[in-house]
Amino acid sequence: MSGGSEDVPVSAAGLEQVVASFSASWSLFGALVEELEDESADVLTHGQLEDLIAARGREVMRRLLQDHLDLRSIREPRLTEVRGADQVVRRRIEPGHERLLATVFGAVTVTRTAYRALGASNLHPMDAGLNLPGERSSHGLRKLAAVEAVRGSFDDAQAAIERSCGTRVGKRQIEQLTVRTAVDVEAFYRAKAPLPCTADTLLVLSVDGKGIVMRPEALTDSTRKAAQAKGDNKMRTRLASGEKNGRKRMAMLGAVYDAEPAPRAVEDVITPDHDRSGARNRGPKAFNKWLTGSVTDDTRTVISAVFDQAEQRDPLHARTWIVLVDGARAQIEQIQTEAALRGVNVDIVVDFVHVLEYLWKAAWCFHTAGDPAAEGWVAEQARTILAGNSGLTVTEIRTAAKTAALGEDKLKTIEGVCGYLENKSPYLRYDAALVDGWPIATGIIEGACRH
């Protein structure tokens, strides 16, 4: 939008308005001061004073914004013509056009001049100067809606905004504001250039899946059919067995970050019982974190996006690429396929915390519930695996199972644990990972899944 301006003298009425500008704000502020000065305020508690000042002060701030907008309307320069993106010249000038703006202080009215032409939409240069949004809600209110929405439900966001702003915003409006705020997120991350790192800096990739409960209309066809099949026997007071599984879609998440190597020993991860007081070396610390996630994109698409981000950081493949996973076979296969397509060497490491979970499953086959000795047993097996001897751990567990006279269910659990350790053994080279200072846990992606 472009246009030429001309000097138009301010009218006498306009001059009076300029002189009287912010008089309403001063009046409200003065009334608040008088109320606080009055002896009747002496009986108020500090909490009541906070509520009083918050309520009255919010109106003072809203009035300040309104008075500024009114003064800005008076000072708005008059243009001889305005040309829009459609290249149509607008010469017809109509002052006094109003629009409402919902802000974090409350609703205000923006009065500005409209420039018109036959068959063309009106243009308001003042809207551009104020960077007003297309909808009624201000950018500040949109930001507040987005911040509160990600903390919980839209109902919680609605209540938080009402507490903060003193005005009620519809839940559907909050949903729409949140969507508009997020519309440029993917483009922003694609365009954002990561900080350069040296070849010694580790490049860490991680992927994981998270089941998310969906609205019925957002389920995939197969999941919807499974949910409908259970619907005939639905109970009124609680979910039926497996019903929650028929309400979920799998979200795929990915992460990329940089980390400086942090070499450490087995004892730095699992401290021996007799040496609890010694200082331990910490693992590598993540920085330059990048996260992505989708409930619509499949595993291949998300993993491809993760590799795109990694190649943006290391286009020459000069750094050490480490991929942390929880052990899902489909993810590992897709990672290997993507790496082969791009001609990059990756070192896949299975999350050590997942390995510990399997060891605990085995521990409860040999120990009664709550037995403190189970912790020591798990620690001993974990140190063996950290030292690069997962095969030895499998042998010891199977040998113990044969001599312990376990029942069929426990033997099945033991075989599941041993099978997991055997299948994942190529990715359990924690001894080399610790020496080279690599991360061995998927905390970054697990945190993303949790939130």
In short:
The protein has 451 residues and is of the alpha+beta class.
Structure write-up:
The structure is a single chain. The protein is α+β, with helices and mostly antiparallel strands and 451 residues long. It has 2 domains: 2-132, no CATH class; 191-450, no CATH class. 49% of the residues lie in helices and 18% in strands. A 5-stranded mixed sheet has the order 8-7-6-9-10, sandwiched between helices. Strands 1-2-3 form a 3-stranded antiparallel sheet, with no helix packed on it. A hairpin with a 2-residue loop joins strand 4 (92-103) and strand 5 (106-116). The longest helix is centred in the first third of the chain and has 30 residues, at 46-75. The radius of gyration is 32 Å and the shape is elongated. The two termini are 43 Å apart.
Features:
2 domains; 3-stranded antiparallel beta sheet; 18% strand
Q: How many domains would you count in the coordinates?
A: 2
- End-to-end C-alpha gap: 43 Å
Q: Uncertain segments of ≥5 residues (pLDDT<50)?
A: none
Number of strands: 10
Q: Which word captures the global form?
A: elongated
Please bin the fraction of helical residues: 40-55%
**Percent of residues in beta strands:** 15-25%
Spell the H/E element sequence: EHHHEEEEHHHHHEHEHEHEHEHHHHHH
How big is the Rg? Answer: 32 Å
- SS-derived structural category: alpha+beta
Name the strands of the widest sheet in spatial order. Answer: 8-7-6-9-10
Biggest sheet features:
5 strands, mixed
Per DSSP, the total helix count is 18
Mean pLDDT: 86
